[in-house]
Every structure is written in C-alpha cells, then in structure tokens.
C-alpha cells in the first residue's frame, strides 16, 4: 500500500480517527505533528514561539513529504495542505478530508488558546476565519469527504473504510 492522508481543520479529529482507521486497515499510523514534536524534542507551540511560523512550515513540509512517501495512515497538520509541495504530494495518495463546522471544532478543542494559531482574538472567531480560508483547499485536494459533525470517531473510521471500499 501507499500512504493514506487525513486532512482537516484543528478539531476535525485527524489524530483521533487516524489510529482507528489504521487499525481497521491493519497498517501503521503516524501523526505528522507528533513526529515533528518528537524529533524536535519540543512542542509545536514552542517551535512557533521560538522560531516563528515560517520555520515551522519548512519543518512540517519536510516531515510530511517524508511520511507521505511511506506507508499507512498519515494524519497531517491542519495547515499542511496550504504548502504547495504538500498539496502536490497529496495528489499522489488517497486523501480523506475530515470536515468539521466551526461550532463543533470549538466544542471539541475547547477554548484552548495554547494552540499557536488560535491564540489571541478568540478561538471561535479565529477558527471561522481559518475554516473560510482553508475549506476550498481541503475540498480541492480531497478524494473522499467525511462529514464529522455529530458523529463518533468509531463511526467515522467505519465511514472512511466504506468510502475507500466504494472507490
Ligand atoms: N468525532 C468526534 N466527536 C467528538 N469529539 C471528537 C471527535 N473527533 C475528535 N474529537 C475530540 O476533539 C479533540 C480534537 O481532536 P483531534 O486532536 O483528533 O483533532 P485534530 O484534527 O488532530 O486537530 P489538530 O489539527 O489540532 O491536530 C480531541 O479532544 C478529540 O477527543
Ligand atoms: O492549523 C494549523 O495551521 C496547525 C495545526 C496543527 O495541526 C499544527 O500543525 C500547528 O499547530 C498548525
Ligand atoms: Mg492532531
């Protein structure tokens, strides 16, 4: 098999549904954010704070391209599909977009301003802006779109599996 990519906004459930899907498929699971943190030995919020977002995006690009060239389910960072090289790589692998409305994303992640891009200005307003800008990108890159609103992670993993079998 090749990689299978999960994309979507913060709170869409990429890190939650990814392992459930990988278990059903009997393939490895990797989370790009987690790999970056373990290789860097620091949290993403600290990479943003210490080095700035552009430096984070370079790290993210390199790790994402490496993992997409491997096998198994790969959960990307929420902003990764906006990097052109990553968008190009996504065109070569099955890509699943976990769609979430701003209201549900806020409910799921709480009012956690610890997430670097959601700091300041209020989580809800920032997420709405971010979703407006990113939704067309997610939609364009997705082979499969899964509506996650009001659905449990296990049911979503089953839905992705069914959609993959239908292709
Ligand atoms: N379908 C769901 N229904 C309810 N809660 C969910 C669902 N999916 C995920 N969650 C919860 O929402 C929170 C965010 O989920 P998760 O970390 O998987 O999102 P993510 O897409 O990986 O976000 P990020 O881009 O920030 O890494 C977690 O607390 C998780 O338990
Ligand atoms: O939405 C984003 O741009 C981000 C989402 C997270 O997955 C992390 O990759 C980082 O916090 C940036
Ligand atoms: Mg995640």
Number of helices: 8
What would CATH call the class?
Answer: Alpha Beta
Helix share of residues? 55-70%
CATH superfamily: P-loop containing nucleotide triphosphate hydrolases
CATH topology: Rossmann fold
Can you tell me the number of structural domains?
1
- Biggest sheet overview: 5 strands, parallel
* Rg computed from alpha carbons, rounded to a whole number of angstroms: 15 Å
Question: Which structural class is indicated by helix and strand composition?
Answer: alpha/beta
In sequence order, what are the helices and strands, one letter per element?
EHEHHHEHEHHEH
Proportion of residues in extended strands = 5-15%
Q: Which molecules other than protein and nucleic acid are bound?
A: adenosine-5'-triphosphate, (3R,4S,5R)-3,4,5-trihydroxycyclohex-1-ENE-1-carboxylic acid, magnesium ion
Per CATH, which architecture? 3-Layer(aba) Sandwich
What overall geometry do the principal axes of the alpha carbons give?
A: globular
Low-confidence stretches: none
Strand order of the largest sheet: 2-3-1-4-5
Q: Distance N terminus to C terminus?
A: 15 Å
- The whole-number mean of residue pLDDT values reads 94
Find the count of extended strands (DSSP E, 2+ residues).
5
Summarize the structure.
Pathway: Metabolic intermediate biosynthesis; chorismate biosynthesis; chorismate from D-erythrose 4-phosphate and phosphoenolpyruvate: step 5/7. This protein is an alpha/beta fold and 167 residues long.
């Amino acid at each position: 098999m090749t990689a299978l990519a999960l994309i979507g906004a913060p709170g869409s459930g990429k890190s939650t549904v990814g392992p459930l899907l990988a278990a059903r498929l009997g393939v490895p699971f990797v989370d790009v954010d987690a790999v970056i943190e373990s290789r860097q030995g620091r949290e993403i919020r600290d990479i943003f704070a210490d080095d700035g977002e552009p430096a984070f995006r370079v790290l993210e690009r390199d790790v994402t391209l490496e993992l997409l060239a491997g096998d198994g389910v790969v959960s990307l960072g929420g902003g990764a599909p906006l990097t052109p090289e990553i968008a190009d790589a996504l065109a070569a692998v099955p890509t699943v977009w976990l769609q979430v409305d701003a209201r549900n994303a806020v409910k799921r992640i709480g009012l956690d301003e610890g997430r670097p891009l959601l700091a300041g200005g209020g989580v809800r307003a920032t997420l709405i802006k971010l979703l407006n800008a990113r939704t067309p990108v997610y939609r364009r890159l997705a082979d499969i779109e899964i509506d996650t609103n009001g659905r449990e992670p296990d049911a979503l993993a089953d839905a992705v599996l069914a959609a993959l079998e239908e292709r």
